[in-house]
Amino acid sequence: MLALISNLKLRASWGKAGNDKITDYAYSSSLTSNMNYTFNNQLLVGTTAAGRPNADLKWEETTMT
Fold first, then answer.
1. Which pTM does this prediction carry?
2. Contact residues for 27 (Cβ-Cβ < 8 A; gap 6+)
3. pLDDT, tens digit, for every residue of 31-43?
4. Which of 2, 24, 34, 60 could connect to 19 by a Cys-Cys bridge, CB 3.0–4.6 Å?
């Protein structure tokens, strides 16, 4: 019985891994040009955002114990 207890080991570990495979500039909105606007009864060409930015985008994280 004593030999069984002397060979007993207690191990523990903790770690956090991540994934950074996010496409470039996915957090920001892109721009679209050649958009027509009316300003002071004149037709003007401009640029506007093509979508909403994603401020919540972040690295994937996995924590293991």
1. 0.38
2. 53, 54, 55, 57
3. 888 888 898 999 9
4. 60
